[in-house]
C-alpha cells in the first residue's frame, strides 16, 4: 500500500464532535501587489524600532515584494508555491491569509473566496482559512495534548461544550497520527512531530482552506514525504483547498501536487499550471533544458555561471514569456469566471460560528496553560525555591544575630540592601527568562483571534502574583528571623509587606524590559546595565546628595532606591527603640536616632515612599502593556519580512 493511501485512512469524519464547516471553498487572487512603503514616510509614522534598523539611509526607495500575481486553488487540490529565496512566497501566503496590515506595506489587488471579494479582516475572522506558518512557536513545557486542548478551548465555535472540544482534540490527534507522543512535552518532540503539531493546531478548527508555509524544511526525505502525504490526505479525504510552499521539492513531492505556482525574484509570477503544462512551457517557450520540474527551478534559482546579471535576465525572460502565454490568459479567464459565482454566505455563515470567547474564559484558559507550564518549568520552580531559599539561608547565617555584633548599624544596612538586591534581581530574572518568548506566542495567538492583549496581560499579572508573594515571604522571613533584626510582629509584617511590594515592582520592570525584546538573551542584556545603575542609586553605595543634578531624576525611577530607603526608614524610625531594648547598647540608640537624617531621609515620608513605590510599579506595568500593544500593531511586519532579506 502506498504512503498516500496509508494516510488517507487516517482522515475520517469525527463522530464524537460536531462539525465546524463542510463548505468547499475556492480561493482566488487577482493582480496581487505588495511593496514596502517609502522609508522617508514610514520610519517616524510607524514608531517601529526595527524600521530604524532596516533603513540605514535617510531616503530609500520602496521595494516590490509581489508584482501583480494571480492564481486560484480549488477544493481537493494542492497548489504548490515554489521559487527562489526572496521571491515572495511567504509574502503571498501572508497576503492570502490576511495576516498583514498597511502600516509598513502598500498592498493592492483582490483575494476572493468562492468568487466573493474579501478584506484581510474577513479572511482572518471567517475561520475559513487556516495558516500554518513557516516558524511556529510553542510553550515548550506543555504537552502536545495540552497545547491542543488550549487551542480548542479558545478557537472552536462558542456553542460547543468543553467535552465536545476535548473530543475534537482526540480526533485530531488520531487523524494526524500523534497518539504515541500526545503526553510528551513539546520540547521532547522531534522535528517531524512538531510539524504535525503545527498542522494539528490549524486543522483543529476544520478550515476550508489550508495555507502551509514550508512544512518540509529541516526534515529528512522520509519525514518530508510523510508530512506531504498527510497534507495530500487532507486535500483528498477532507475536501480541503491546500496551498503549500515548498522550497526544495523532490520529484516524489511533485507527484502529490496538482498545480504549480512559480515565483522569481522581485515577486514576479513565472508560471501557473499543472506539472505537464510546466514541462511544456519551460522547454518549448522558454527553451530551458531539463527532464524535471525541480531542474527548471534550480536553473532559475542559480544559472550555470552563477552570474547575478544572467540570473536576473533569465528570470525576467521567463516571467515575460509567462505573462503573454496561453496559461496566463486561461488563468485570467478562470478568475473572472469565479467572480460570476460570488456568494458572500460563505463568509457570513462561518463568521456566525466563530465568536470571540468571553473575557472570563480567555483569562481562565490562559491561567490554566501558565500554571500547567510552570509545573515543568525549572526556572519558576527549582530556581525560585531552591536557589533563592538556599541563598537566604546563607545570608541568614552570615548576618546571624546582628545584636551581638559591634557594628550593628552597618550590618543592618547591609541586611536591608541584601534583601533588596536579592528580591529585585530574582523577581526580574524570573520574568525576563520566560516572558519574551511568551509575548511572541501571545501576540501571534492574539492575531489569530484567540484572546485580546489586555486579557493576555491581565493573565500574566494574575499568574505571577502568587509567586511574587510567596518568594519574598519565604526569603525575607528567613533572613529577618535569623538576623534577629526586630522581634516584633508589627515590624515583621511591615518588613514582609515592603518586600512583597519590591518583588512586584521588580517583576513589573522585568515585564517592561521583556516587552522590548523577542529573545531572552536580548531582554537580559538590556536589563543588566540598567539594573546596575539603579543599584548604585539605591543609597547604599553613594550618598544621594552627591549625585549630579542632571542624573538625580534617575533615582526616582529606581526600584532599589525606593526599596532600600523604605527599609531604612522602617528600621531606624519605627524600630530604633526595639533595637535599643533588645541589644542594650546605648550607642546603637544614639546612632539610630540620627541615622535617618544623616542619610537625608525624612522621618515622616514612609507612607509617601510606599505610594511612590506603588506608582512606579503601576506605571511600569502600564508601559509594558502599551509596548505590547505597539508590538501588536506591527506584528504584520514580522510576518511579511521573513521571506526576503533587508536592504543594505
From TrEMBL:
The chain crosses the membrane at residues 384-402, 414-432, 453-483, 489-510, 522-544, 623-640. Keywords: ATP-binding, Membrane, Nucleotide-binding, Transmembrane, Transmembrane helix, Transport. Residues 1-22 are annotated as: Disordered. The keyword Transport applies. The keyword Transmembrane applies. It is a multi-pass membrane protein. Gene3D superfamilies: P-loop containing nucleotide triphosphate hydrolases. GO terms for cellular component: cytoplasmic vesicle membrane; plasma membrane. It comes from the Eukaryota. It is found in: Membrane. This is ABC transporter domain-containing protein. It comes from Rotaria magnacalcarata. Its main location: membrane. Belongs to the ABC transporter superfamily. ABCG family. Eye pigment precursor importer (TC 3.A.1.204) subfamily. InterPro entries: AAA+_ATPase (IPR003593), ABC2_TM (IPR013525), ABC_transporter-like_ATP-bd (IPR003439), ABC_transporter-like_CS (IPR017871), ABCG_transporters (IPR050352), P-loop_NTPase (IPR027417). Residues 47-290 form the ABC transporter domain. GO terms for molecular function: ABC-type transporter activity; ATP binding; ATP hydrolysis activity.
Amino acid at each position: 500500500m502506498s504512503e498516500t493511501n496509508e494516510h488517507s485512512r487516517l482522515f475520517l469524519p469525527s463522530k464524537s464532535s460536531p462539525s465546524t464547516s463542510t463548505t468547499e471553498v475556492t480561493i482566488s487572487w487577482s493582480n496581487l501587489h505588495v511593496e514596502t512603503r517609502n522609508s522617508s514616510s514610514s520610519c517616524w509614522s510607524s514608531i517601529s524600532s526595527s524600521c530604524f534598523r532596516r533603513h540605514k539611509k535617510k531616503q530609500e526607495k520602496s521595494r516590490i515584494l509581489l508584482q501583480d500575481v494571480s492564481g486560484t486553488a480549488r477544493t481537493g487540490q494542492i497548489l504548490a508555491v515554489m521559487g527562489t529565496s526572496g521571491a515572495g512566497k511567504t509574502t503571498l501566503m501572508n497576503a492570502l491569509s490576511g495576516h498583514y496590515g498597511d502600516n509598513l506595506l502598500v498592498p493592492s489587488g483582490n483575494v476572493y473566496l468562492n468568487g466573493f471579494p474579501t478584506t484581510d479582516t474577513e479572511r482572518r475572522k471567517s475561520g475559513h482559512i487556516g495558516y500554518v506558518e513557516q516558524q511556529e512557536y510553542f510553550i515548550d513545557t506543555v504537552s502536545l495534548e495540552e497545547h491542543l486542548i488550549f487551542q480548542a478551548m479558545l478557537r472552536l465555535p462558542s456553542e460547543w461544550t468543553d467535552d465536545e472540544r476535548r473530543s475534537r482534540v482526540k480526533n485530531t490527534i488520531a487523524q494526524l497520527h500523534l497518539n504515541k507522543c500526545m503526553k510528551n512535552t513539546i520540547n521532547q518532540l522531534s522535528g517531524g512531530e512538531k510539524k504535525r503539531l503545527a498542522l494539528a493546531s490549524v486543522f483543529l478548527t476544520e478550515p476550508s482552506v489550508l495555507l502551509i508555509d514550508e512544512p518540509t524544511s529541516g526534515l529528512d526525505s522520509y519525514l518530508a514525504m510523510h508530512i506531504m502525504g498527510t497534507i495530500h490526505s487532507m486535500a483528498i479525504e477532507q475536501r480541503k483547498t491546500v496551498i503549500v510552499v515548498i522550497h526544495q521539492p523532490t520529484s516524489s513531492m511533485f507527484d502529490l501536487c496538482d498545480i504549480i505556482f512559480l515565483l522569481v525574484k522581485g515577486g514576479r509570477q513565472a508560471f501557473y499550471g499543472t506539472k505537464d503544462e510546466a514541462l511544456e512551457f519551460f522547454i518549448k517557450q522558454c527553451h530551458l533544458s531539463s527532464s524535471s520540474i525541480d531542474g527548471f527551478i534550480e536553473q532559475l534559482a542559480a544559472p550555470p555561471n552563477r552570474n547575478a546579471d544572467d540570473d536576473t535576465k533569465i528570470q525576467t525572460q521567463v516571467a515575460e514569456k509567462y505573462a503573454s502565454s496561453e496559461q496566463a490568459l486561461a488563468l485570467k479567464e478562470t478568475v473572472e469566471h469565479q467572480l460570476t459565482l460570488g456568494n458572500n454566505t460563505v463568509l457570513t455563515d462561518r463568521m456566525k460560528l466563530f465568536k470571540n470567547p468571553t473575557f472570563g474564559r480567555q483569562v481562565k484558559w490562559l491561567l490554566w496553560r501558565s500554571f500547567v507550564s510552570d509545573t515543568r518549568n525549572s526556572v519558576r520552580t527549582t530556581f525560585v525555591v531552591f536557589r533563592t531559599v538556599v541563598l537566604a539561608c546563607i545570608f541568614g547565617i552570615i548576618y546571624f544575630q546582628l545584636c551581638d555584633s559591634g557594628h550593628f548599624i552597618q550590618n543592618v544596612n547591609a541586611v536591608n540592601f541584601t534583601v533588596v538586591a536579592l528580591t529585585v534581581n530574582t523577581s526580574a530574572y524570573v520574568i525576563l527568562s520566560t516572558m519574551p518568548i511568551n509575548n511572541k506566542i501571545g501576540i501571534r495567538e492574539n492575531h489569530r483571534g484567540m484572546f485580546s492583549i489586555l486579557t493576555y496581560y491581565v493573565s500574566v499579572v494574575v499568574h505571577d502574583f502568587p509567586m511574587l508573594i510567596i518568594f519574598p515571604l519565604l526569603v525575607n522571613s528567613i533572613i529577618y528571623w535569623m538576623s534577629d533584626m526586630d522581634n516584633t510582629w508589627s515590624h515583621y509584617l511591615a518588613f514582609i509587606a515592603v518586600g512583597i511590594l519590591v518583588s512586584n515592582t521588580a517583576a513589573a520592570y522585568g515585564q517592561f524590559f521583556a516587552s522590548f525584546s523577542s529573545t531572552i538573551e536580548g531582554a537580559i542584556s538590556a536589563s543588566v546595565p540598567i539594573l546596575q545603575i539603579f543599584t548604585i542609586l539605591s543609597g547604599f553605595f553613594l550618598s544621594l546628595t552627591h549625585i549630579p543634578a542632571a542624573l538625580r531624576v534617575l533615582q526616582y525611577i529606581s526600584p532599589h532606591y525606593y526599596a532600600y530607603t523604605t527599609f531604612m526608614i522602617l528600621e531606624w524610625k519605627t524600630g530604633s527603640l526595639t533595637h535599643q531594648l533588645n541589644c542594650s547598647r546605648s550607642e546603637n540608640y544614639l546612632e539610630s536616632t540620627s541615622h535617618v537624617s544623616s542619610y537625608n531621609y525624612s522621618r515622616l515620608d514612609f507612607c509617601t515612599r510606599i505610594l511612590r513605590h506603588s506608582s512606579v510599579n503601576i506605571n511600569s506595568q502600564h508601559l509594558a502593556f502599551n509596548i505590547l500593544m505597539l508590538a501588536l500593531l506591527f506584528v504584520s511586519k514580522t510576518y511579511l519580512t521573513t521571506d526576503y532579506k533587508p536592504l543594505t
